[in-house]
Design a protein that fits this description.
This protein has 8 helices and no strands. It has 212 residues and is mainly alpha-helical. It is elongated and about 60 Å long. The mean pLDDT is 90.
């Protein structure tokens, strides 16, 4: 069971986004073929792809949070001492956490309102919540990922900057994601420093020792 949970922790967003992208591709392909061969397409195709696109957006937001790959403007931060930079990054993570919690509550209220009013999709006899529910679920994933990120940053606060920053998640497990092509893994490995790898090895050894 632990292996399954670990695999899902590493791959949940990747798997969901992959499935949704595949569904979008299939629906669009069928729509194009039908318009060119039959002369008309599916009435619901555009709306379904729009719903799926919203799902990809929110799940992708969680994935970006997990990978520490959100766009950053660090031109001023980099001029500060390393310890100060770390404090600033932790504060930013806390601000993001508060923002995601507020958005989660707001999106959940929207879903409740849609369910109460029984709003239906334009081309299908289904609830619009098939789209709106992606927001609280995606933001819920974001909140979990931010807690994991904060835990990592607290644990590595006194370590090297590379290990603390964990850019693209190269030290916290990103390379174990099932979908990474080999050349991407090699490129990410090249960004790892010997100091950070040694610190990570010491952390893992200490963790294993503590679990005995």
């Amino acid at each position: 069971m632990k292996k399954v949970l670990k695999w899902l922790d590493l791959n949940a967003e990747v798997l969901l986004c992959g499935l949704f992208f595949a569904a979008i591709l299939i629906v669009i392909t069928v729509q194009i073929v039908m318009r060119n061969i039959v002369g008309h397409g599916l009435n619901w195709a555009e709306e379904v792809t729009r719903y799926l696109h919203v799902w990809v957006t929110y799940i992708g937001l969680s994935y970006a949070t997990r990978m520490n790959s959100h766009i950053q403007i660090d031109v001023f931060r980099q001029r500060l001492p390393e310890k100060v930079q770390k404090v600033i990054m932790v504060i930013i993570q806390l601000i993001l956490l508060a923002l995601f919690v507020a958005l989660f509550v707001g999106s959940l209220q929207v879903c409740i309102k849609v369910a109460t009013l029984n709003n239906r999709a334009e081309s299908m006899n289904v609830s619009q919540n098939w789209m709106y529910i992606s927001a609280p679920l995606g933001l819920g994933f974001c909140i979990i990922r931010l807690f994991q990120t904060l835990r990592w940053k607290v644990k590595t606060f006194n370590k090297s900057w590379e290990l603390f920053e964990d850019k693209e998640g190269v030290y916290s497990g990103a390379l174990e994601t099932f979908c990474y092509p080999e050349y991407v893994v090699e490129e990410l490995k090249e960004t790892q420093t010997e100091r950070a790898l040694k610190e990570l090895e010491e952390m893992n050894a200490k963790k294993k020792g503590g679990n005995k």
